[in-house]
From TrEMBL:
Residues 390-436 form the ATP-dependent RNA helicase SUV3 C-terminal domain. CDD domains: DEXQc_Suv3. Keywords: ATP-binding, Helicase, Hydrolase, Nucleotide-binding. This is RNA helicase. It comes from Aphanomyces astaci. One of its GO terms (biological process) is mitochondrial RNA 3'-end processing. The keyword Hydrolase applies. InterPro entries: DEXQc_SUV3, P-loop_NTPase, RNA-DNA_Helicase, SUV3_C, Suv3_C_1, Suv3_DEXQc.
Amino acid sequence: EGWLASDKKILERRLKTFGRDFEIKSMAVAAGLNDQEWGPATTQFRRSLVSHPERHFKDTREMHDFVEGLKTNAAAGALQFYPLFLTFVKENAYIADISQDTQSLRELTDLRLPHTWYPKAHAMKRKIIYHGGPTNSGKTYEALLRLKQANDGLYCGPLRLLALEIYENLNMDGVYCSLITGEEKREIPSATHVACTVEMCNSSAVYDVAVLDEIQLMGDSERGWAALSCLQAKEIHVCGSMEAVDLVREKMFTLWMDTRTCYDVLVASDAIGMGLNLNIGRIIFDSILKFDGSDMVDITPSLEKYVSLARLDGDYFMCKFADIKEAAVLLADIPMPLAERFTFCTAPANLRNPLARRIFVDYAIGHGNQRSVPLDVYLPKMAPRNELALRDVEIKAKLIDVYLWLSYRFPDTFKMQAEALEMKDRVLELVEEGLVNVTYKKSDDKPKKKVGEWNTDRTKFVRYADARQAN
């Protein structure tokens, strides 16, 4: 049997506020409901409860008691519907009945709120000042003035050369500053400031002032994961181009114009794979094969399971990890703890070069076997005289950088740090000399003007003897 007319009226009135109750939504999401499914789930629940009460109650007496509870306990509001709603979403597969392992996987793949991974930083009252403008507009200069005035501070830049420049400038101005990059550390005794590349910033240290240069790289698909959220600084100066201004205006416009457009049918190509969050009642796949960028592959159950569990908030995006994935494939058969394997995968190695790939794998094998890893890079005695030889020296320079990068993270196995630093100085000399040789060789190889050939529209070279005869 259905509801009595009077009971149904009370039920519908109370259900109107259920879908807008933030507390209930938070409880449901914590129980495993995908945030994007809240709207469809509450709509289906309201329809089911009103039209098919037999699905939720054993008999009419239980239905009547529930409505009486709504009348007598109005203060509880929409919260009284929550037990029924939780049962409904579980029965309708909005929340899966999951094992402990799957629950752990759900937590690992919940990527909606990455800023909550740094609770200490976000517990601070941080003042963030944005310096926007084009190149050479003085935006970084103003931020650095404030950095110099601070008792302690941090500069983070996307490039080693930028960090090196700030390191030198601060020390020249009497502000003791250390340099920390992926390939190099120059620690100054009693230093109050640090200049580093963004990936090397210390997220556990607390600073008075921090400067983040080229902040627009937060939007970079390969380096965006390295930046702002983790910094524990009372005052953070972010410097970059003007893209953020448009972003703020766009967010404001979205808040003003929060509308929805609904359709009965959506035809899309790879919409889910492109990251669209769609409230769809039924999905029909045209094929169980998918192009992954190089080959047609199956949509495996493990991939489907991962996609169904993974969650990402609209303010964030997934970075590209193609290089990390390629390194992981190379190191798959090398025995190594997971944390160390991931560190190797993030090393700045050029895996597209065969020599670099071979030596990188040799480094990993040596470390995996817990033995001292040799540098295994040999430099020519003479500076390169052509582009091919110069390119070879540049590759070896990058290999030395990789060894230094690993030596700072695994000093017990990469013990030739001093030799690598000496070799780095030498390889830089070879590159500089090689650039001079190649540049002058190109200028010498340029075809010279022949006597009597037109040089411009109005001048012409003539033989000196012919000119004398003409006079």
